[in-house]
Write a structure and sequence with these properties.
heterodimer; A: about 160 residues; alpha+beta; four-stranded antiparallel beta sheet; three-stranded antiparallel beta sheet; 5 helices; about 50% helix; about 25% strand; elongated; B: about 500 residues; seven-stranded antiparallel beta sheet; 16 helices; globular
Chain lengths: ~160, ~500
């Protein structure tokens, strides 16, 4: 498994990551929606508005939540299409970004240590986030989310392997 | 002077440490003390002060008594604490440098604070505050005798490195430090705050308009009319110059006090810098830890044929936490104001094998100038239009010189921006008014990142950034904008190739 990961072939993320991100987006919109709704209701109760005003404000709230929800739904597949990673003998390269595209290249010898993290949603889908730590400043830690747990472990083993 | 204590070799810090600990505690209590004095209005404050100070003093005494250190066989051991005991072992082999910090009082009393730094980490691993100068010399001698500096030969037959023979490399005169102060803007925050406060508080009961009138000595019979825009503009310009003058004076004072007597020495492969008027600092800069070297030349530098050289090191040697005195050991300056002719020698010492003269400078993308022009014109437009509402249409006249300045800036910036791949390092220079040249040895390159904004994509350009340890302290970021797409890819490939071939040692 280790050998097959470090073959220099550019791979996309795991497709299940789209759903993981959508869930995260849904949670965020629910939170934002909930908080703004509470704030709205408190304000409405305090100021005794007309029916028209209530309807208007509720519509505005709905529009806000709908747009955030739409963003949370539509963005993940887009960012998925633009994210790739590649490992070979010389190092790791992560290419991602929809509007601002970036390629981050990490030479193998510059990897200080690695973490493999799994949030609850990621665990449910069998995915993980690989965090690579370097001695840099701007890129002191570089995270690659949305890879399968096994793949993350394989990458980590490969990167650590070079230290010995 | 060692005080024999419980276990063999365990020593306490110099008794004067107590004074400085209490001093720190007092500094921390300064605000509460002020609050108490204000609130109590002169009655009963003695009790409050006693309540605040007595526990602090007792805590300082207790922490002094419970702090002890020992020079072990191959490590420095530090014990502290009573309730929570901590024993820290710092192997001599790991200690990369020992910095000394002495504030005014410590200098008078002949003691110093010793900060020990290992390879990684931003904070010193151990801070002994304070030791007498004899003790410091003893500790230093012991540590460096035991430690094997990274990369040193382990051949027993080789002659010992001349570590005891410091070679003076560079010394700054106070006049040079004053010139350096002129070129920097230290104290900008102070001046800006003072200006803001002045504006807000409306001293002497004047509001800005009447202040302008007062300064311009407008005829009192016309005092009810708003001052003419020309007068206002003139006063604004004068005010601006006054502010700049204050700023520069503050900057000169700061620089001279901070870097007074700057002397750089070479001890073997490492550098040692001493500086400071009030707080005296002796910092070691191991050559191995230099991540980036940056040369700055402003118009004053160029006129006088000088340059300022700064470095970035791994582990900045910042504040030493609660144990230390809070004075920052800036391991930033290699040579604050050095002659252009002496520069190549210094650079070669700091980064062995690097020769800027042989660099083949590559320019940015062909259309970079055009993009910079568009941005500068947009900026000029914004700057020129904003005062329009304030001062009237005469301001439009200002747009013409601003526009010309934008064109000039675009052309000159593009002409002076270039990068070069040297034998052992990568170099990047930018800026036309203040010219910066930064050099990063390949073995210090960490991560290379290439980015493309939507505008970059349209023009087939990209920007490339080289990340290093401890970056961001010299005023020049190693980010190359407006590169040709293909050139960026090629540069990325070369950098990765060279970087992978070299191991990174802290």
């Amino acid at each position: 498994m280790v050998g097959s990961v470090a073959d220099g072939v550019e791979r996309p993320l795991d497709p299940r990551s789209i759903n993981v991100q959508r869930i995260a987006g849904a949670i965020t919109s629910a939170l934002i929606g909930g908080v703004t709704l509470i704030a709205l209701v408190v304000r409405l109760i305090a100021s005794r508005p007309t029916r028209g005003e209530v309807v208007l404000l509720l519509l505005a709230w709905l529009a806000l939540v709908a747009s955030i929800g739409a963003l949370g739904w539509l963005w993940p597949p887009l960012s998925f299409r633009h994210a790739f990673w590649r490992i070979d003998a010389s190092g790791m390269r992560i290419r991602r970004g929809v509007v601002w595209r970036s390629i981050v290249s990490i030479p193998r010898s510059r990897v200080q240590h690695t973490d493999v993290r799994q949030g609850p949603v990621e665990r449910a889908f069998g995915l993980a986030t690989l965090v690579v730590h370097t001695a840099g400043t701007e890129h002191a830690s570089i995270a690659l989310s949305g890879v399968a747990h096994d793949t993350a472990l394989a990458i980590r083993d490969h990167l650590i392997d070079v230290q010995t | 002077m060692s005080r024999p204590d419980d276990d063999a070799g365990w020593r306490r810090l110099h008794p004067l440490s107590l004074v400085f600990r209490i001093g720190s505690a007092a500094r921390r209590l300064l605000l509460p003390v002020l609050a108490v004095l204000v609130v109590s209005r002169g009655q009963g404050y003695e009790l409050w002060l006693a309540v605040m100070f007595v526990p602090a003093v007792i805590a300082a005494i207790v922490s002094y008594l419970s702090y002890s250190y020992r020079l072990g066989a191959d490590d420095l051991v530090i014990r502290q604490g009573i309730v929570t005991r901590n024993e820290r072992h710092v192997p001599y082999a790991r200690i990369q440098n020992i910095d000394l910090v002495q504030n005014l009082l410590q200098r008078w009393l002949g003691v110093a604070e010793a900060r020990f730094e290992t390879a990684s980490g931003n904070e010193p691993e151990a801070v002994l505050r304070v030791l007498s100068l004899d003790e410091v010399a003893a500790v230093r001698g012991r540590v460096f005798r035991e430690a094997r500096p990274a990369g040193a030969t382990t051949d027993p037959g080789a002659p010992p490195a001349p570590a005891d023979a410091p070679e003076p490399l560079y010394r700054a005169r106070t006049s040079q430090l004053a010139l350096l102060g002129l070129t920097s803007n230290r104290g900008l925050a102070v001046v800006a705050a003072a200006f803001g406060a002045l504006w807000q508080l409306e001293p002497l009961g004047y509001d800005p308009e009447s202040l302008v009138r007062e300064i311009a000595r407008v005829d009192p019979s016309r005092a009810h009319l708003p001052p003419s825009p020309w007068v206002t503009a003139l006063v604004a310009v004068l005010g601006f110059f006054v502010v700049v003058l204050m700023l520069k004076l503050l900057s000169v004072a700061w620089t001279v006090v901070r870097l007074y007597g700057f002397a750089l020495e070479a001890r073997g492969a490492d550098f040692s810098a001493r500086y400071g008027l009030l707080t005296r600092i002796a910092a070691t800069v191991p050559q191995q830890r230099i991540q980036l070297l940056s040369v700055r030349r402003g118009p004053l530098h160029r006129w006088l044929g000088q340059a300022s050289v700064q470095i970035e090191t791994a582990g900045r040697g910042g504040r030493a936490g609660a144990e230390g005195s809070g004075a920052e050991v800036e391991r930033l300056w290699l040579a604050p104001w050095i002659d252009d002719r002496a520069l190549p020698g210094l650079v070669a010492r700091a980064l062995p094998g690097v020769d800027l003269a042989s660099a083949a400078w590559q320019p940015l993308a062909a259309r970079a100038g055009r993009r910079i022009l568009v941005r500068s014109l947009a900026l000029a437009l914004v700057v020129g239009v904003v005062p329009l509402f304030w001062l009237g249409p005469q301001v439009l006249l200002v747009l013409v010189p601003l526009g010309l300045l934008a064109v000039l800036h675009a052309r000159l910036w593009t002409r002076h921006a270039a990068y070069a791949l040297l034998a052992d390092a990568v170099a990047w220079k930018s800026g036309w008014w203040t010219r910066h040249t930064s050099i990063v040895p390949y073995e210090k390159v960490q991560v290379v990142a290439v980015g493309q904004s939507p505008f970059d994509r349209r023009h087939r350009m990209a920007s490339l950034a080289v990340d290093t340890a401890g970056a961001g302290h010299v005023g020049h970021s190693f980010e190359l904008p407006y590169l040709d797409e293909a050139a960026a890819a090629a540069l990325l490939g070369r950098l990765l190739e060279e970087t992978s071939a070299r191991a990174f040692r802290w």
